[in-house]
Amino acid sequence: MARSKSSKQWLKEHFDDSYVKRSQDEGYRSRASYKLLEIQEKDRLITPGMTVVDLGAAPGGWSQVAAQLVGDGGKVLASDILPIDSITNVTFVQGDFSDHAILNELLEHLGGAVADLVISDMAPNMSGVKEIDQPQAMYLAELALEMARFALKPGATLLVKVFQGAGFDAYRKQLQASFKVVKSRKPGASRPRSRETYLLAAGFKGDLSHGF
Question: Which residues are catalytic?
Answer without folding.
Answer: 161
